Amino acid sequence: MTGVLLRAGHVTRRFGAFTAVDDVSMQVQPGEVVGLLGANGAGKTTLIRMLLGLIAVTSGRVDLLGGPPDRERRRRLGYVPQGLGLYGDLTVRENLSFSARAYGIAEPALPAGLSGYAGVLVRALPLGAQRQLAFLTALAHSPEVLVLDEPTSGVDALARAALWDTIRAQATRGAGVLVTTHYMQEAQQCDRLLLMSDGRLVAQGSEADIIGSTTAVAVRTADWARAFAVLNAAGAPVMLAGRAIRVANADPAGLAEVLGAAGIEASVQPVPATIEERMLLLARRTEAD
Amino acid sequence: MTYSVRSATVRFGHTVALDDVTVEVPAGSVVAVVGGDGAGKSTLLRALAGEVSLDRGTVEAPPRQHLGYLPASSGSWAALTVTQNIDFVAGIYGLAGDELAARRAELLDRASLTHAAGRLAARLSGGMRRKLGFVMAIVHRPDLLILDEPTTGIDPVSRIDLWRLVSEAAASGAAVLMSTTYLDEAERAAHLVVLDRGRVLVQGSYDQVRAGFAGVVTQASRPARAEWSWRRGRVLHEYWPGAAPSGPPAGTTAVAPDLEDIVIALSLARRNAVRS
């Protein structure tokens, strides 16, 4: 497999006066896992829906597997939407039969985790089993492109690790994967990242490319909640990592002064910035606009 | 004041959702419940909220009017505006007039929702909707606040807003019980409870849980025993339950396990023990 699997060229989408996606260009190649990051409302899902041909572009151009995202090309695509896209009023077996027919393949066997549920209505399934079924449905026809919208939201740590094994295996066999996530640890497992903010693509590349020139300071103290409240009240761009407080683009001496004035003993040290800090700074700029 | 669920067992048909679970939630602190699908997190929260009845055990909770509960599903009305949602819930608790106006303004400000006060809940982003749900759960200043996955599916920036609201609620005296699938969040809680298939795997402060963790976690590109390993970023971690803390097995690199490692390791230990 060669060439670009998914491509957006200067794609814009408006809903009335609101611009959900603003002049975005990106692509996904075979064998790579591309992470699409951004705050809720940044335009990630709208971009995905255009790439898949589920909604029209206002301007620009979308190519799926070398052409417009029509039905023929969509057969070579696997998609797990945020809501999983299953039919709640059909059984597990009926969901599988339906999608197998739609894709023109033999019905896949049920894996161990689902074998007891064949005749059960999907809406009565535990969420974990529903997710497993959604993945099975999306992967059964060995798609060349796999698009996953927050596949691990609400999934426990062990199941999340297993899902990422599946995602990696798809890329290894040559599929191109586009995945959105809010877990920064998952972003680190992608080969390449795209960061959206307010409908625009504001950074792309490696984790370091996304972080750019952002810096960070870690504040460690016995009472994180109090230090957090004090720094937050002082207008600092604060984040939390476990019980450490992190402040983006801050001067360590200034922070130490604010904490000292509140009578809080803390260690204040420069640390490598993370993608979350870049996102926080973008969000604050948006609010200020 | 400490609220609690003691020796609680809840069955749904043949499924045991909670199996002899005891959890205490003291006033002024945050207790976090972690665990996977079917671990029993929601059942535990609903038991304390009085939404499910116990087959065995006891619940100590304040009367309904002093309890705030944010269910896992959004908990707001899509066809009402942000203000209407808040006012409707506040009205149930008898909040009205200037008192309501002041409380509403204060909460909207703290949740960074003031600019969206007139927007329909259906038009909010996921993070904003969760914050609205939180505001509605806390509008009447409850003594006990129960939050079912308030941050799931929320972007990192909105998650911080929610944590600020949660820690402020605890700081002003509320007892907070919340569930989460983000383990770095659970580290922040004063007390954390790890549930697995209806039972408490371990509970205590983060330091206690870490100190009580036996065995060694190692890191490798290829694990020796697949059933004891899991993916962490680009590498794989593996758990050696029997290994002495002084040294991991020869030829492996030990890592300092964080809460995510500990929860996965304990879950694997239980699964592998059940299997063998």
Any key phrases for this structure?
heterodimer; A: six-stranded mixed beta sheet; 10 helices; 13 strands; B: 276 residues; alpha/beta; Rossmann fold; 2 domains; six-stranded mixed beta sheet; four-stranded antiparallel beta sheet; 8 helices
Concise account of the structure shown:
The complex is a heterodimer of chains A (289) and B (276). Chain A is of the alpha/beta class.
Per DSSP, what share of the residues of chain A sits in E-state strands of 2 or more residues? 25-35%
What is the number of helical segments of chain B per DSSP (H or I, 4+ residues)?
8
- Overall spatial form of chain B: globular
* Radius of gyration of chain B from CA coordinates: 21 Å
Individual helix count of chain A: 10
Supply the helix-strand structural class of chain B: alpha/beta
Across the major sheet of chain A, the strand order is 5-6-7-3-8-9
Rough outline of chain A:
globular
Structural class of chain A: alpha/beta
Global mean pLDDT of chain B: 89
The overall strand count of chain B is 13
Reported by name, the CATH topology of the largest domain in chain B is Rossmann fold
CATH superfamily of the largest domain in chain B: P-loop containing nucleotide triphosphate hydrolases
Low-confidence stretches of chain A: none
What oligomeric state best describes the polypeptide chains here?
heterodimer
Q: Approximately what portion of the residues of chain B adopt beta-strand conformation?
A: 25-35%
Uncertain stretches of chain B: none
The spatial strand order of the largest sheet of chain B comes to 5-6-7-3-8-9
CATH class of the largest domain in chain A: Alpha Beta
Give the biggest beta sheet of chain A: 6 strands, mixed
